[in-house]
Design brief:
The complex is a heterodimer of chains A (368) and B (470). Chain A is an alpha/beta fold and 368 residues long. Helix content of chain A is 31%, strand content 17%. Chain A contains 10 helices and 13 strands. In chain A, the strands form 3 sheets. An 8-stranded parallel β-barrel of chain A has the order 1-2-3-4-9-10-11-13, surrounded by 7 helices. The radius of gyration of chain A is 21 Å and the shape is globular. Chain B is an alpha/beta fold. Chain B folds into 2 domains: 348 residues, Luciferase-like domain (TIM Barrel, Alpha-Beta Barrel), CATH 3.20.20; 73 residues, no CATH class. Chain B contains 15 helices and 14 strands. In chain B, the strands form 4 sheets. In chain B, strands 1-2-5-6-9-10-11-14 form an 8-stranded parallel beta barrel, surrounded by 4 helices. In chain B, strand 9, helix 6 and strand 10 form a beta-alpha-beta unit. In chain B, helix 3 crosses helix 5. Chain B is globular. Classes of the chains: A alpha/beta (368), B alpha/beta (470). The interface between A and B is large, with 78 and 80 residues. Chain B: Keywords: Flavoprotein, FMN, Monooxygenase, Oxidoreductase. Chain B: Belongs to the NtaA/SnaA/DszA monooxygenase family. Chain B: It comes from Streptomyces phaeofaciens. Chain B: GO terms for molecular function: monooxygenase activity; oxidoreductase activity, acting on paired donors, with incorporation or reduction of molecular oxygen. Chain B: This is Oxygenase.
């Protein structure tokens, strides 16, 4: 365990967790897909003291009319905001149901280089048949098949991250060699439906391996660094966290908070007039900041962190920033990330040795 | 060159455009000198892009790697390698630059339109209209070994796939009506009811059905670049590209012949001659005097062409492993072996190795060159060498006579290889009135002086039009 204090993650896709969140956003709809908006939300999350922001994604539109149907790719947004922040971790959702794992692994490794070790990967899932039609690929049908694709995708991606040893670039003037091919490795991956030769194009990420997050029920066991666990109440979350076979667990928590202008219940009711806030089997908290602090206090010791899904980012994030996080930090129930450390370090995870490294070094934290 | 009336040229007001190409995987990026910096450190990408922007360049380019190069089945060790995913790196640069275009080299054989078109579109929005796409194709199974898709695409099919890819990508980029998203906070609907058009395409290469998720950017579509040099490649560019790269930028007559050929092909497909920008790749070496520039070139070539590299370059030409030969000795006595290219070292430039070897032998003998000196003098290095004023005069002639619209410059040193160009050459060009003194537009399309994207002007053949998607 990384200690009882929680690490805080924030999902920042779109305008918030509610499908109609855009109606209460502090900006007009056409401002959502702009660089200013992407950078602004990330800066607010970083200033608030979040350890990690995640960005949801998929091949299909995020919602349906009259709600938001537009979304910039999560990897592109993550790279953009990694370059405009300096402390917060950044983890895009990337499904590997249909994507090319060679590209995915390179994009994510690049994100880790760009952020100097602050990158994570939320393994996504594309269950809708429409996703197969968008990709123009045969449908990956059923949970078992999608879980297999997720497992293969993670395995080959992790293998590619290790396909360059940390010291593969040798710049040996004496022998005219820039690379040492003995420190580069073919992955020769054979999965259920495809093979990948390797090695990667992108050198090993600064963290060695990015932090891999995902739902333990959507990924074969033993693949994740952080299990994102659901459950409608504390008992269910506790049970799910105990079942998750991952070094770290984060609870998924949907939040609607009282703001200086409106009570949480009224804000939810206002949006419910337009669309239901579908239950996804996650903890949901509606009320004042004090109650949320109490709920999160109960989660310390149960999970290592929480991922918050605010009803409306523009309304709930300021309350989290002003009231919730300062109180949690003051009571040592949560920690803020420190500058110049990697996401792995923030989560108390070691930098893993390369599977190909002959002598395993002491693996000090990467903090360049 | 005799001085003439500056207005007595075919294009008296033509302007020169510069792009910078951050590293290929080839031996002209010098890594052995302490000034040769990291090829992956994000600070170096930022530094080159910001330096180019200070020099009012049109664009910053990144290449693409799909498999590490090999020689005789073993990974090639002598040259720089290891680079970031292009679109991802460019999305980061969009946050720390303001005006410069950001161009990704992305392959149509090992990508799918729904994914790549969306990624490029996202880059275009995050950069407020500065994205470009250098469209490349691959046909070999060797590269395919890294992909689900795998396998081999017939050589003839690679351009067919690229063209169909572009058709689908354009339909995706045009999927949203202008002004599709509401500008009013109290709007009843996030987007107009019929704002998004479903893209349905069924062709020989792609069978897709999707709802595009992004609006058009301030420049409409990403700017399309293309680098094919074969007749087929030039025709592809004439039909599809906004900018064509080439290796025809180092000799005036050769550059002009290429440009005239491209313009002829443009006319043949019904496009105006000025619809395509011609930006050959080149290297620029600058000295305070001609002698100093030549001295610098000599140093650069010796850094680029080490004895091992000379043997490697010659080995590729001969089709033989020459790594145990003496680079400072004579050329190999053997005849070259003509083998089929499997793609593992990129595209070969030499059509007939026997002819090239005969030329190398004759020139080496005449000049008394060693193998290494022969590679230095006759090998694939290319570029312009001179003083700032001399180069400015030369480039003015190139652009005003329509031989080029500019150059895509590969610096021999990262990250500081652009300094001489930005600090010394650009002011000379500005003095001659052939180079901008400030950015007058905000998008890459505006920098290049291009018209609206094709999709906006021409009916699309790709998609069945049916409103109400989403």
């Amino acid at each position: 365990m990384s200690g009882p204090a929680l690490r805080l993650a924030l999902e920042i896709d779109g305008d918030g967790a509610h499908p109609a969140a855009w109606r209460r956003a502090a900006h007009s709809p056409d401002h959502l897909l702009t660089p200013r908006r992407v950078a602004g939300v990330a800066a607010a999350a970083e200033n608030a003291g979040f350890t990690l922001v995640t960005l949801d994604d998929g091949a299909l539109p995020p919602g349906s009319a009259p709600d938001v149907v537009g979304r910039i790719g999560a990897v592109e947004r993550a790279a953009f905001l990694a370059a405009s922040t300096s402390v917060v971790g950044v983890a895009p959702v990337v499904p590997v149901t249909y994507a090319e794992p060679f590209h995915v692994s390179g994009q994510l490794a690049s994100l880790d280089h760009i952020s100097v070790g602050r990158a994570g990967w939320v393994v996504g899932d594309e269950p809708a048949p429409a996703a197969a039609r968008a990709w123009g690929r045969p449908l990956v049908d059923g949970t078992a098949a999608r879980t297999r694709e997720a497992g293969d995708g993670i395995d080959v991606t992790r293998a590619l991250w290790d396909s360059w040893e940390d010291d593969a670039v040798i710049r040996s003037v004496a022998t005219s060699r820039y690379l040492d091919r003995d420190r580069l490795h073919y992955v020769d991956f054979t999965g259920g439906t495809y093979t990948v030769k390797g090695p990667a194009i992108v050198p090993r990420p600064p963290q060695g391996q990015l932090v891999v997050l995902g739902r333990p029920d959507a990924v074969p066991a033993g693949r994740l660094d952080v299990a994102l666990v659901g459950g409608p109440d504390l008992a269910a979350v506790t049970a799910a966290a105990a079942r998750a076979e991952a070094p770290r667990t984060f609870a998924e928590v949907e939040v609607a908070l009282d703001t200086p202008h409106a009570a949480a219940e009224d804000r939810v009711a206002d949006l419910e007039r337009h669309a239901p806030w579908t239950q996804r089997g996650r903890l949901r908290y509606t009320g004042g900041a004090t109650g949320l602090i109490a709920l999160l206090a109960e989660l310390t010791g149960v999970v290592d962190g929480v991922r918050l899904h605010p009803l409306v980012l523009d309304e709930d994030l300021p309350v989290l920033s002003r009231l919730v996080i300062p109180a949690l930090v003051e009571r040592r129930l949560a920690v803020r990330p420190l500058p110049a450390a990697t996401l792995r370090a923030h989560l108390g995870l070691e930098r893993p040795a390369n599977r190909h490294a002959v002598a395993v070094p002491a693996a000090p934290e990467e903090t360049r | 060159m005799t001085r003439t009336d500056p207005l007595d040229v075919p294009r008296p007001h033509a302007q020169l455009h510069f792009g910078v190409f951050f590293q290929g995987v080839n031996h002209w990026t010098i890594w052995s000198d302490p000034a040769g910096g990291s090829q992956i450190d994000p600070a170096n990408f930022r530094r080159v892009a910001q330096r180019a922007e200070r020099g009012l360049f049109d664009a910053f380019f990144l290449g693409e790697g799909l498999r590490l190069r090999e020689v005789d089945g073993r990974i090639h060790e002598l040259d720089v390698a290891g680079r970031p995913d292009a679109v991802t790196q460019l999305a980061a640069l969009a946050a720390v630059t303001d005006r410069i275009g950001l161009v990704s080299t992305s392959n149509t054989t090992f990508n799918e339109p729904a994914d790549l078109a969306r990624r490029l579109s996202g880059l275009d929005l995050l950069s407020a209209g500065r994205a470009g796409w250098n469209v490349v194709t691959t046909d070999n199974a060797w590269t395919g070994a890294n992909f689900r898709r795998g396998g081999h695409l017939d050589h003839a099919d690679r351009y067919r796939r690229a063209e169909e890819f572009l058709t689908v990508a354009r339909a995706i980029w045009d999927g949203w009506k202008d002004g599709a998203v509401s500008g009013s906070p109290g709007a009843p609907s996030w987007s107009a009811p019929d704002a998004v058009r479903q893209v349905r395409h069924r062709g020989a290469q792609f069978d897709v059905d999707l709802a595009p998720t992004l609006p058009r950017s301030p420049q409409g579509h990403p700017v399309i670049f293309q680098a094919g040099d074969s007749g087929e490649g030039r025709d592809f560019a004439a039909r599809n590209a906004d900018v064509i790269f080439s290796a025809h930028g180092n000799d005036f007559d050769d550059a002009l012949a290429f440009a005239d050929d491209v313009r002829r092909r443009l006319r043949a497909v019904g496009r105006p001659e000025d619809d395509l920008r011609i930006l050959p790749g080149t290297e620029i070496i600058i000295g305070a005097t001609e002698a100093e520039a030549l001295e610098k070139k000599r140093w650069i070539r010796l850094q680029q062409v080490t004895p091992a590299t000379a043997l490697g370059v010659a080995g590729l030409l001969w089709g033989l492993d020459l790594s145990d030969r003496d680079a400072d000795g004579p050329l190999p006595k053997e005849d070259p072996v003509v083998a089929e290219n499997d793609g593992s070292f990129g595209a070969r430039r030499v059509a007939d190795p026997r002819e090239a070897v005969a030329e190398w032998r004759q020139k080496a003998e005449t000049n008394g060159w060693s193998l290494r000196e022969t590679v230095i003098n006759l090998g694939p290095q290319r570029g312009h060498v001179g003083t700032p004023a001399g180069l400015a005069d030369r480039f003015t002639r190139y652009v005003r006579h329509g031989a080029v619209d500019g150059f895509n410059i590969t610096p021999y040193l990262i990250p500081d290889g652009l300094d001489d160009i930005v600090d010394l050459l650009v002011p000379e060009l500005q003095e001659r009135g052939v180079y901008r003194t400030r950015y007058t537009g905000t998008t890459l399309r505006e920098h290049l002086g291009l018209r609206e994207p094709r999709g906006a002007r021409e009916p699309l053949g790709a998609s069945a039009e049916r409103p109400g998607a989403g």
